[in-house]
C-alpha cells in the first residue's frame, strides 16, 4: 500500500506531460506525411548515411521549421502578442527572415561542395522553404494565441472565484461588525457613566473604525482622505494600547483631495506592522509613508523584525493582500517586499 501511495502521485504529475509530447509527435508525423513523402525521406536519409553526396531539401527545411514553430508559439506569441503587438510583428518578421536566410545559406553551401539535390536551384529552394514556413507561421501563431486565450480564461475564473469568496467574507465580516458596533456603543455608555476616560476614548475610536468598515467597505472607491482618516483612527487606537510615547510615525506627502481608492486597501499593511513589529524590550519604531503624485498612490510600511518565525505568517497576510489587489487593481498595482537589516518593509504602488 505504501508503494502505491508513493508512485500514484508521480504518475498523475507526468500524465499531462506524456499527453503533450504524444500530441506534438503525432502532429509532426502527420505534417511530414502531408508535406513530404515519408518513404522518400527515408530513402534520402539512407543515401546520405551511406556516403552518397545527396541532400534532400527536407533535412534543411524541417529543422528550421521546427525551430521557428516553437520559438513563435512558446516564446514570441505568449510574451508579446497581447501587450506589445507591434514589437511582436517586428520580432516575428525578423525571426522569419533569419530562419529562411540561414536555411538558404546552408543549402547553397551543400551545393557548392558538390552535393546533389532534387532542388538544384537556390531560388526554388527559397520559394519552397518560404511556403513551408508560412504554413508553420499560421499554425504556431494560432496555437500560441489559443494558449493565451486559455490562460486568460483560467485567470478570469480564478478572479471570479476570489470575488465570490471576498464578497462572502465581507458579508460575514459585516454581520460581525454590526454586532460589535452595537456592543461597543453599550460599553461606551457604561464607560461614560463610570467616568473611565481611557476606556471611553478607546471604545470611541474602535467604534469609528467599525463604522467605517460597515459604511464604506462595500463601495468600489472612496476618497483617499477618508482612507487616511480611517488609518489615523486605527493608529490612534493602537497608541492607546501601546502608550502615547511608543514610536509610531505617519508621513504624508502630495495632494489627496482629488484622489480615490478602493476602501480598506492599505489597512492590511498597518495591521501587520502593529501585529508583528511591536516590542517593549527594544526600540522598535513603526513607520508609514504615503506619497501621492499625479499618476499614482504609494503607501509603505516599515517595522522591526521582532521574531523571524512570525515573518512567514506575515507573508500569508501579504499574499491575501496581493490576491485582493489582483481583483481591485488588475495590471495597475505593484507590491514590493523588503527584508533587510532586521527590518520588514512593504510598499504598494497604485495607478490613479
UniProtKB/TrEMBL annotation:
Superkingdom assignment: Bacteria
Cellular compartments per GO CC: membrane
Keyword Transcription regulation in record: no
Keyword tRNA-binding: no
Any one Pfam family match given in the protein's UniProt record, by short name: His_kinase
Transmembrane domains' residue ranges: 21-38, 58-76, 88-110, 130-149
Signal peptide residues on this chain, from the entry's feature table: none
Every Signal transduction histidine kinase internal region domain range: 167-245
A GO MF label: phosphorelay sensor kinase activity
UniProtKB keywords: Kinase, Membrane, Transferase, Transmembrane, Transmembrane helix
Listed name of the protein: Histidine kinase
Amino acid at each position: 500500500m505504501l508503494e502505491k501511495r508513493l508512485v500514484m502521485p508521480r504518475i498523475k504529475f507526468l500524465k499531462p506531460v506524456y499527453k503533450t509530447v504524444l500530441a506534438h509527435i503525432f502532429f509532426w508525423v502527420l505534417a511530414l506525411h502531408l508535406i513530404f513523402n515519408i518513404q522518400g525521406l527515408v530513402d534520402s536519409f539512407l543515401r546520405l548515411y551511406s556516403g552518397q553526396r545527396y541532400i534532400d531539401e527536407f533535412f534543411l527545411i524541417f529543422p528550421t521549421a521546427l525551430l521557428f514553430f516553437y520559438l513563435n508559439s512558446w516564446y514570441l506569441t505568449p510574451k508579446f502578442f497581447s501587450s506589445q503587438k507591434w514589437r511582436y510583428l517586428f520580432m516575428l518578421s525578423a525571426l522569419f527572415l533569419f530562419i529562411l536566410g540561414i536555411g538558404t545559406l546552408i543549402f547553397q553551401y551543400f551545393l557548392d561542395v558538390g552535393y546533389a539535390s532534387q532542388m538544384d536551384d537556390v531560388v526554388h529552394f527559397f520559394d519552397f522553404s518560404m511556403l513551408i514556413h508560412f504554413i508553420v507561421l499560421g499554425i504556431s501563431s494560432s496555437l500560441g494565441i489559443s494558449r493565451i486565450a486559455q490562460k486568460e480564461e483560467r485567470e478570469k475564473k480564478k478572479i471570479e472565484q476570489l470575488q465570490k469568496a471576498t464578497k462572502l467574507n465581507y458579508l460575514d465580516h459585516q454581520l460581525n461588525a454590526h454586532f460589535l458596533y452595537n456592543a461597543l456603543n453599550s460599553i461606551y455608555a457604561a464607560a461614560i457613566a463610570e467616568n473611565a476616560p481611557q476606556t471611553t476614548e478607546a471604545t470611541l475610536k474602535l467604534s469609528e473604525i467599525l463604522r467605517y468598515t460597515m459604511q464604506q467597505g462595500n463601495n468600489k472607491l472612496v476618497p483617499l482622505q477618508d482612507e487616511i482618516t480611517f488609518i489615523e483612527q486605527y493608529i490612534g487606537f493602537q497608541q492607546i494600547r501601546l502608550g502615547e510615547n511608543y514610536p509610531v510615525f505617519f508621513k504624508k506627502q502630495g495632494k489627496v483631495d482629488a484622489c480615490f481608492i478602493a476602501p480598506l486597501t492599505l489597512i492590511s499593511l498597518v495591521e501587520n506592522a502593529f501585529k508583528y513589529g511591536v516590542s517593549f524590550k527594544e526600540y522598535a519604531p513603526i513607520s508609514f509613508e504615503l506619497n501621492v503624485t499625479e499618476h499614482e498612490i504609494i503607501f509603505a510600511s516599515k517595522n522591526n523584525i521582532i521574531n523571524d518565525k512570525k515573518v512567514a505568517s506575515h507573508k500569508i497576510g501579504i499574499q491575501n493582500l496581493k490576491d485582493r489587489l489582483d481583483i481591485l487593481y488588475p495590471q495597475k498595482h505593484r507590491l514590493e517586499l523588503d527584508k533587510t537589516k532586521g527590518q520588514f518593509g512593504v510598499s504598494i504602488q497604485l495607478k490613479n
